[in-house]
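Q: What does the assembly look like in three dimensions?
Context provided by user:
Components: two
Sequences:
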Amino acid sequence: MSARAEAGDAAGVASELPASVLVRVFLRSLLLQASWNRRGMQNLGVAYALWPALERLYPDPGRRAAAAARHLAFFNTHPYLAPAILGGALRHEVRVARGEEPAEAVERFKAALMGPFAAVGDSFFWLSLRPFAGMWAALLAPWIGLWAVALFLVLYNVPHLILRVRLFVAGWRGGDRVVEQVARAGLPKWGARLRRTSAVGGGAAVVVGVHLLTGPGLPVEPARWLAVASFAALVVFFGTWALLARRGAHWAAFAAVLLGIGLAFAGAGW
Amino acid sequence: MSALLAALVGGLAAIERKAVLQAQLSRPIVVGPLVGWAFGDPLAGLYVGAPLELVWIGAANLGAALPPHDTAATAAIVAAAIGAGGDHLPGAAASLAFVVFGSAALLGRRLEGVGERANERVVAHAAAALGEGLPGRALRQHLRGLWRPFVATGLLVLLAGAAVGPLLGRLLAALPPVVHAGLAIGWGLVWAAGGAAAVRAARLPHGLALAAVGAAGAALAWAAAAHLGWTEGIG
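A: Here is the predicted structure of the complete assembly.
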């Protein structure tokens, strides 16, 4: 189909699915994982999200139920990139409803994108942006207090919500071309940068911990205590680094608490 | 009443964690102050939640692999630490609550897995309703997945705030001062464990070198701040 034909098609489609329906689909996509399960994963969530549009597109109850049923096939992707796929799936559903495409086209579209989008979303949001926002908010918390919560939410949610909305619109308008939109966002490149700053912050967290240990109410003469606390923090840091290859971080935190008690006993003998 | 409000906050955060929105209101650095607010002390919640954010910074739900349930654990730890009351060193209550409820992260993960298996039955009901030509009823099944995380985390937080917290308060009061101080020191060291967790989570070959740069920068900033007399902080 030519670009002009596609543009014309998009205009026609828009008149069949009003903005209110698209908004409802988007809002319902925020509950995508409410019934996440190991067999179909987000399948029921997809059918739930698309339902307002399917109701509109298929006046015949039989075709409507069949349309909902085909979205119960296995589906799993990153929840923030799912709106891109849902938007594109809607565009395909419109064509299916018009008889311009077979129903399998919707399934093929979803199946082709869910894996790659899951990988991109996991890497950027879960492993890069969230650690970045959490790290810097936590590091500054001792000084900025509750503003740290606002900082975290803004750092994380401004890009998250903008992308979520824009990708839904891009999927709806562009159909298969949403892949180009996701590629243009450059998420892997930004993710790598954010992870580097998180690693820098990891080192700073050791110093923040030592700083908090030099507050009032803690033992012995300051200069000596600073040296001991710094050494203990380094032991915990490298011990955790080694332990994390096999155990969860909270086991290392348990060990840190035990070391703290040990230090206090040692300090009591000074 | 505070424990009930905290249970409500914890339950809602547990839903937000995966089922609804996922704006990260369920992360330790947010849910800590929120539960603290329920007890009238959001700063204490932040004091506990900030290092826990680092400890569980790499916890990510990748595919079908479930991470430790940082939300349930943080909410319970904060509720127990504040519920302990009294005039203890803040780190001491946090450490003791962490020792008691840190493993709630693993319990929460297990319960989340149980919930996901139960959701398979929800989907089967939905498919059956679709087969009967009742799509509206079928799709409403989707929301049945919401109650389990709410109830499980809410009950845990209620237990922590209303029952275990006051017990921890008595225990802290009975502990010798040296153990009390040791627990407080331990909470400072948890930051170092969290720092290592963050560097690991970055998954970079030169992560330790970058961490060394961060440590050096922070030490310089601390020295400069001390020189200028800037010593305020929640610690």
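Follow-up: Confidence is low (pLDDT under 50) at residues 1-15 of chain A.
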